[in-house]
Amino acid sequence: MGFWFLLYIVSGYEKKYTLFKKNNFKMNFSTRTSWNREKNPLALLLENLRKENKKVFDLTISNPTECGIQYPIKEIISAFNKPEIGKYKPDPRGLDFARQTIKQYYLTHGASVKEENIFLTASTSESYSLLFTLLCNPGESILAPRPSYPLFDYLAQITGVSLKYYPLRYTGGWQIDLEALKESISSSTRAIILIHPHNPTGMFLKKQTFDEIVSIASRHQITLIVDEVFLDFRLIQNGDGMGTTVNTSDVLTFTLSGISKSLGLPQLKLGWIVISGNEKFTHEVGERLEILLDTYLSVNTPVQLALPDLIRCGESIRKGILERIRSNYVYIQGLFSNFQSYPCSVLESEGGWYCIIKVPRTQTAEAWAIELLKKHNILVYPGYFYDFDDGFLVLSLLTEESIFQNSLNILAKHIHESVR
Questions:
Q1: For the segment 54-65, what is each residue's pLDDT rounded down to a tens digit?
Q2: Residue 241 in contact with residue 197, Cβ under 8 Å?
Q3: In the β-sheet with 392-396, what is the strand arrangement from edge to edge?
Q4: What is the pLDDT of residues 326-354, one digit of tens each?
């Protein structure tokens, strides 16, 4: 999901049918797609700048294929040079060949998973949609963290699920508010979403916290959905965040990942779900999920056959991404720590591709973002895009170093001069 998806985030969704009249013809649409499609002011300004062919210094970029990371293109193309691509033998769970490769991937993380518990999808977004459908009747609820990515709101509305939230707190580091999580559970709650590491805060789950959440879920007979797409991207090497959750044993758990993030290959569309937990349920869950997957058969054969070679290619891509995000993270920390006069600070992150800047509340975060884009052609996300309270900007660490550093220097100077 890129910036385009966030262009329409304004004040919420309209809860009525959208009506179009043309030549006396009236069309009724599902309320599930009755989104407010009006562009917000930041999006309109960006659109005008691009129409005028003005150069924009994009500090929101989340597509690794567009930010100067070196890709082994010849090797990626060669990965698809397989005669088996000429045949179509669909398997709703995914080809054995590909699932064996994912099993090997988890061995590199010190975890052993059963091949029959691995299910391939076209993306993590599709994985969420399938699981929402699997677990919830219309109107039943799923708990998601806040702040968080706006994707969940759309997927929940499309699948008829009620989305509820539990808060993350920042006290020199990010943590889940367990008491608030407990209070958020109701009789209609069917699952808790955990993002590990969290996007965009970069918070890794801690073993003690996760054990407590497993205990809560077990007590309330609630399923866990754990999104690990950024698991391979640690910013802090000595962080105490735990590893993968694929070996959870005490509660039904769905662990999600895919090559969009883990290999930096969003264009090749392959994700997966790993089931773990109480074996009394995993067999039936697998059968139900298989039927859902068989309904769509959305995963293409070529990417499955190419997966082992793509994982080898992805090692160098991941290395390039890690070098980039760590370099930019070190720079932004140094910038604000060395210049105490700057009225900004960087919130600690442990992993992932984003960082969060706390800015003065002399005006809204959206006003800061609009001002930076209007005066300096610097594009940042206002925090409310991710359900932050006012006073925060969200930046991508994937941006090319020279652009990132020059833009950050201008940003810091602009805010300093605006509030002194």
A1: 999 999 999 999
A2: yes
A3: 345-346, 354-358, 392-396, 381-382
A4: 999 999 999 988 656 668 899 999 999 99
**Burial state string for 268-288 with b = 16 or more CB within 10 A and e = fewer than 16:** bbbbbbbbbbeeeebeebeee
Q: How deeply is 80 buried, as exposed, middle or buried, from its count of CB atoms within 10 A (0-12, 13-18, 19+)? A: middle
Cα–Cα distance for residue pair 37/213, rounded to 1 Å: 37
Domains of the chain: 39-70+315-419 (3.90.1150.10), 73-313 (3.40.640.10)
Average pLDDT of the chain is: 91
Chain length of the chain? 420
Distance between first and last Cα of the chain:
37
Local confidence band at 124 (pLDDT 50, 70, 90 cut-offs): very high
The secondary structure of residue 251, as a DSSP letter, is S
Contact 214, 227 (CB under 8 A): no
Burial class of residue 369 in the structure, from the number of CB atoms within 10 Å of its CB (0-12 exposed, 13-18 middle, 19+ buried): buried
Q: Kindly state the tokens that stand for 124.
A: 């993590």
Check residue 241 and give its pLDDT. Answer: 80
| Two structure tokens written together for 176 | 């889940």
Q: Tell me, what's the pLDDT at 22?
A: 53
Question: Residue 150 class from Cβ within 10 Å (0-12 exposed, 13-18 middle, 19+ buried)?
Answer: middle
Q: Residue holding tokens 């802090």? A: 236
For 39, residues 6+ apart whose C-beta sits below 8 A from its C-beta are 7, 8, 47
- Cα distances (angstroms) measured from residue 405 to each of 127, 153, 359: 36, 33, 18
Backbone angles phi and psi of 27, in degrees to 5 = -115, 130
Kindly give the pairing relationship between strand 354-358 and strand 345-346.
antiparallel
